[in-house]
Amino acid sequence: MSFVSRTPEGHYRANWREPSGRQKAKTFPTKAEAKRFLAEIDAGLSRGLYVDPHAGRLLFATHARQWLDSRNDELTTKARDASIMETHVIPQWGTWQLSKIDHLSIQKWITELGTHRSAATVAEAHRLTSAVLRSAVRNRLIAFNPCEGIRLPRRRRHDTADQVISREDLRSKLLPATPHRYRAIIATAAGAGLRWGEAAGLRLDALDFQRARLSVIRTVVEVGGHTSFKPYPKSSAGRRTVPLPRWLLPIISEHLDRYPVPAEAPVYANAVAKPLRRTLFRSRVWRPALVRAGMLGALTVIDDNTVRASWTDSNGATLTKEFVTEREAVVHIAKSSAPGPRFHDLRHSYATWLVDDGVPVNMVQRVMGHERSSTTLDLYTRRTDDHSRILQALDDGDDLC
Description:
14% strand, 3-stranded antiparallel beta sheet, alpha+beta, elongated, 401 residues
């Protein structure tokens, strides 16, 4: 039962009993305020939505770290979310009491964050903030989630997003420009549509040369610079069998002859038979190979002692610099140039080739390891730019009188 009593100091105390039976009280300067407060408490109690008005004093950082520790996520997901939480969310909301965080403050933060961070980063920061506050609602610490209804910046596609590498450029430019030890992993990712972790985690038991196919049954994950095998792919649909094109088989065979590995090691291992690290591969192998292939920046030999490097930075400005050796120029472009094709674009290119060649979407979905065909349709059918197929469908190739 709730009631209002007067204190010796002349204030008014709202008294009520929690569902647990514990007596609670809160003091107000006027009787009207105390009655309004008790009306809200009684309404929450009757609807089963009671929230202790003192619970919201808990700091956001305290509940956020409890929430992170309680989750049962993959190592990579845990590492990603912890990084975003500590980099963007905790610095903003960590010292705030949960009950003091309001919708307007969050919207102002999201808008300001969007001025210097990508839309994807802003969306992730909002997702984690909302998840923590949603957990606070479920634990009866606050009455509602102030993250609901927040407007996020739009994710806009840039001209560098999801670039398609042609089959001709792959085989005549990129592969010859790649150091021999790493040529096969690039060829396999492009020829079988594998994700990085699937290609880096490929073992001998997953290869079937007689039937010209490979099985995706495990991946490699990298957290904090350490790699480990995960005995299953990204999703249930990710466990799949993929046919290998004729041109890819001799590349894999030659790699195994030149760089033999024990059965428990990945096919595409580093010099000590351990899985390749994605971050190092990108900076030391992938981007320099793009430069040498003419797919990122440009190299111009001036004379025996001068090589001119040209590249476009992230702001769209074209820059040049001269170096004594080609190696120095390649390293500089790889480090300084705006993002070019990514390793993951090999997988995008694979799917686009299949769609362009008229392979049914359900078959593309299966070899890509997508859970839903809508994912395949949304990602790849809009990306094809083979106009000859459109003209053929319109009979534009025929001579008309």
